[in-house]
Amino acid sequence: MKLKLTYILSCFLFLACNDKNSVSFEPLLITTDSCENCTLVRIEIPQAVQKTKLGKTINAALEGEIIALLNFDEESNAENLAEAKEAFLFDYEELAGKFPEESTPWEATVEGTITFENNRIITIKLESYIYTGGAHGYGTNRFLNFDKLSGKELYQEDLFNNLIEFKGYAETVFRKQENIPITGSINKTGFMFETERFYLPDNIGYTENGLLLFYEPYEIASFADGPIILTIPYTKANSFLKYPSKP
């Protein structure tokens, strides 16, 4: 009887731990009313349902990224997505009042999708487009990685066993992909790495096809070149990763 009770308790604790680290999502949509010649804000992201550490971390990280994207005025003190949307609309109205001849409506769209999930890692991509006047808007992707067991957001230094070794390997792959000679300046074919040396982008995320390195427009090339993307299959990346993934 004692052995049976111990087994039941162990199963209960195992399920409790699994439940603690699991996460499910529901869609969150924040948008402005549709009208002609109006500033548009549309935010569509997954929102974690559970109020666990992991759920709270994911929701807070997504919210923080989007608030920063919508922050045209550095003095804005928006604390949530609804306030960020209203601040974006207010900033447009204020600028249009000062310069009515240049009052082309602004636009901000953000869409979040889960690009990868296993028993340890979950990655969410924020695809955004922001237009606040001028010749063109600015679109980019942002990848956020989370440790499902610890409930923490993972930054670049948290992903690799040896960041320097991975950077060296990534440079070799990058040079091959972009037809850059293996020796000589990384900018030899027209890239714009500062200090003439290869570096990793801030934006790295897990995808089903492999580890994705995303250089934003302007980061290492001209805006016309668009984003520069390097995808390293897990068969090659796993030896460098603290969180290896099955190919």
TrEMBL record:
Transmembrane segments: none annotated. This is DUF3298 domain-containing protein. It comes from the Bacteria. Residues 164-234 form the DUF3298 domain. Residues 36-137 form the Deacetylase PdaC domain. It holds the Pfam family DUF3298.
